[in-house]
Design brief:
The structure is a homodimer. Chain A is an alpha+beta fold. Chain A is 24% helix and 24% strand. In chain A, strand 10 (211-214) and strand 11 (218-221) form a beta hairpin. In chain A, helix 1 (121-138) crosses helix 4. At the A-B interface, strand 1, strand 2, strand 8, strand 9 and helix 2 of A face strand 1, strand 2, strand 8, strand 9 and helix 2 of B.
Chain lengths: 327, 327
């Protein structure tokens, strides 16, 4: 059983993932690992993944067989386990609990070489709808408090499989980074009686210098205090605290944003995360769901680890200009 | 002039480093960059670095010439500038100030292939003393509030030069990660009237399962909630809040710890940081300085960025056992 452990100084939680336990000799630099070869996520290899939780498939095709456009399966090496109780307990001054939670993989396409930046728009729409469906279902588990949807694309961004996929982890704790964001937004709301994200959207549309793309319902923007070169956020223009309220024009905005990044940076490794409200729903007024896309072009090093500060060599105004002009 | 910008949601600061401004085509994956070739940090090439701020050198040798064992110089591409005023100002809802601060490089040895894990003990002692000397000097600058000493070793850990060196950045702001640590320690102190680090040290010496090395004044330990495989902290057994109180046996402890890591993990890429109290000195009772050494064996990916949670595949008890037994 994986273990959740809390740092007694920062209150930061870590998952000690026994499922993936590794000895010193197991750490091979990712760059030296061979890619290619057999792919368990390709169509026809359905028996090489755990059974599907949901799938979008042709009428009449049975589960776990070919004929699908998207599948969601449990992670074969889950960081957290869905069965069991939390068993919160202490160990001297330390706190821990069982690693309960969900860890799912969204297989975004049956085709090995298709990516979100290159697949047909309909494929992107399926992926974003699958996220919504899984979040809605996981919310029913009373032991869980938060769900994170994220994607690692490319070896440098931590992807261990080449085939386009994203991941969903549901947690028994609201994670620290999310709590900070929610608390920060709440402080702003208490002070100004306005949502900080709504204020950001207003200022970005007016200033234009960091605006990348805008449609009827969304903006894509290089944030004023971007941590990484070409960091890009997608925000809904209407105030909604949770991703389930996504609008159908999201897939166009997401596909176009990723495809511009793809052209300007030549298929860069990247991570994205969806930040949405917690299962409690207490953040409806002050929180505003959004996508954060982080290309991995530089290394995060000692200074960043030690301070939580970031050094970004590309001003967001310049990044936005490149992405805006990449028609 | 570099710019410090504050994220209006999290209060997180970033440095927009115009000194290193980069276009899309400048981002070459580090792995594809050629290493080797001319080294500006080697003995004999003193004219290829900014002038030395301090140096430990043979009697009678003039500054910026051969005959040294250690040099500290300004960073040739500084993230922050030492000249000027902070000029704090707003831009709509955003906050920014000039990127004022110090950015120095500690050239740890005149010899290209020597590392902290392999150099004579005396060399390590010089490095740790240089840190102390520079911190003491930078504290005199009234515009600055915190100094971080850190090291990036190996390409995967963000080092852009092979020659063994570390860096010192002094900041006009106490960085977020440090504030969190100080606040966390203060909360613990307010609740228990004891230093949380002192309590950790007591429990680790008693439990032994995460203890790696112990001498008269220091312990090296795999933290209970390690974020990374083989993460190791070095803590002084006596309560001191700031690094300037380092004891002379620190260099033995640091050298042995790094050398064991070197043997067990085969010269791994790693980062280390020194966490010490801020220039205000207000943390004397509840804060406890320490080293955090973080081998870079796994990639930090979407889940970590999105949550601030970490997934660690190597239980700290197992990591400690490997390092303890690496005689």
């Amino acid at each position: 059983m994986p273990e959740l452990r809390k740092d007694p100084i920062h209150g930061r939680w870590v998952i000690i993932s026994t499922e993936r336990s590794r000895r010193p000799s197991d750490f091979v630099p990712e760059e030296r690992k061979p890619m290619g070869g057999f792919c368990p996520l390709c169509e026809g290899n359905e028996d090489r993944t755990p059974p599907e939780i949901i799938a979008y498939r042709d009428n009449g095709t049975p589960p776990n067989s070919p004929g699908w456009t998207l599948r969601v399966v449990s992670n074969k090496f889950p960081a957290l386990r869905i069965e069991g109780d939390l068993n919160r307990e202490g160990e001297g001054i330390y706190d821990k609990m069982n690693g309960i939670g969900a860890h799912e993989v969204v297989i975004e396409t049956p085709r090995h070489h298709e990516t979100l930046a290159t697949m047909p728009l309909k494929g992107v729409a399926h992926v974003l709808t699958a996220y919504r469906d899984r979040i809605a279902d996981l919310k029913n588990d009373q032991r869980l408090r938060y769900v994170l949807v994220f994607k690692n694309h490319g070896v440098a961004a931590g992807a261990s499989l080449e085939h386009s996929h994203s991941q969903i982890i549901a947690l028994p704790i609201i994670p620290r980074r999310v709590v900070e964001e929610i608390e920060g937004a709440k402080n702003y709301f208490n002070y100004k009686d306005r949502c900080v994200f709504c204020d950001i959207i207003r200022q970005e549309i007016q200033q234009k210098s960091r605006l990348i793309l805008e449609n009827n319902a969304f903006i894509s923007v290089a944030p004023f205090a971007s941590r990484f070169p070409f960091e890009t956020w997608i925000l809904p223009k209407t105030h909604y605290s949770s991703y389930e309220h996504m609008n159908s024009s999201l897939y166009e905005q997401a596909a176009q944003t990723l495809s511009r990044m793809n052209r300007v940076l030549n298929d860069p490794p990247y991570n994205y995360v969806i930040h949405t409200s917690s299962f409690s729903g207490l953040e409806a007024e002050h929180y505003h769901w959004h996508f954060e896309i982080m290309p991995k072009l530089t290394k995060v090093a000692g200074f960043e680890w030690g301070t939580g500060f970031y050094i970004n060599p590309t001003p967001p105004e310049e990044a936005a200009e490149y992405l805006r002009e990449a028609k």
